[in-house]
Write a structure and sequence with these properties.
Order of helices and strands: EHHHEHEHEEHEHHHEHHHE
Radius of gyration: 19 Å
Helix content: 25-40%
CATH class of one domain: Alpha Beta
Strand content: 15-25%
Largest sheet: 8 strands, mixed
Distance between the termini: 41 Å
Number of strands: 8
Number of helices: 12
Shape: globular
CATH topology of one domain: Rossmann fold
């Protein structure tokens, strides 16, 4: 049958900052695909080391697949994946890239509006959970899971462990010069960054909550780093002339370094929780208490 692309109407924008920023990715879908790398294999290893599912038999609902940064590694491991992506352009690219996998379907829909066609053993959101409506995301995820199924999502981002690359301190003057503010140092250490364990428990829909932290790093040339920053939602909202001034300074500083490369540390917090058997919140908790 092959990978297919389904559609589900237009996304009804809520007009808030979260949805506005989320929509920027679809506006630059081709650039997003070029700038965003696949997630590291060790993150997939962490996932299947902590869920009672063999990857070759996993039935996964992926929320916010982008252009397939996590979908491709899942598909290669034999997972059956239904990926829901709200951006029509992103979904088309993901569909094209995954066309050779008969175990993958891409659905163009806003997860909050989408009605599951079946229940899944695993609901997964890699770097997309924070874009979902916090009023309904836990309830919707719970409803999509089989009894005993697992919700897994990641949070985190740029991390600053001891010895992090000083480039990220040096570039702050350039951000301030274009009116984008600056990141103040010292930043919290990776083990000090809060997770969302309490929020999951307060939703009332999940139990057996666990968080797996992984610190990892990547190297970037000037062009690679600018390509990544071009896709960042906060950078997309910077006025174009000011953004290009910033990117020119990024390139200059990186190219001055030996080898013309920087090292970026990332913290990924993999949150795992088992859906409660009732599929309903406990009387003492509110599904909107986030």
């Amino acid at each position: 049958m092959g990978t297919r692309l389904s559609t589900m109407g237009d996304v009804n924008s809520e007009g808030d900052n979260r949805e506005r920023r989320a929509a920027t990715f679809d506006e630059i879908a081709e650039l997003y695909d070029l700038g965003r790398r696949e997630i590291p294999e060790q993150l997939i290893d962490d996932l299947f080391a902590n869920v009672p599912i063999d990857s070759a038999h996993a039935d996964v609902l992926e929320i916010g697949c982008g252009t397939g940064q996590a979908t491709l590694p899942l598909a290669r491991r034999g997972c059956r994946v239904l990926a829901v992506e709200m951006g029509a352009n992103l979904a088309r690219i993901a569909c094209r890239k995954l066309a050779g996998f008969h175990n993958v379907e891409i659905v163009n829909a806003r997860f909050e509006d989408w009605k599951p066609v079946r229940q899944f053993g695993l609901v997964l959101a890699v770097t997309s959970w924070h874009w979902l409506d916090p009023r309904v995301r836990y309830q919707k995820a719970a409803a999509a899971l089989k009894p005993g199924g697992t919700l897994a999502f990641t949070t985190g981002g740029h991390a600053f462990p001891p010895g992090f690359d000083s480039f990220f301190m040096e570039i702050q003057d350039s951000y301030e010069a274009i009116g984008a503010g600056r990141l103040e140092f010292p930043q919290p250490l990776p083990d000090e960054v809060p997770d969302q364990r309490i929020e999951i428990e307060m939703s009332g829909f999940f139990e057996d909550v666990r968080v797996v932290r992984r610190l990892w790093k990547q190297e970037f040339t000037a062009d690679e780093h600018v390509a990544l920053m071009t896709t960042a939602s906060d950078h997309r909202l910077i006025e174009p002339d000011r953004r290009e001034r910033l990117f020119a300074e990024l390139r200059r500083l990186i190219n001055l370094r030996p080898g013309g490369r920087i090292t970026k540390h990332n913290l990924t917090m993999l949150h795992l929780a088992r859906v409660k058997q009732t599929g309903k919140p406990t009387p003492s908790a509110s599904p909107s208490a986030h």
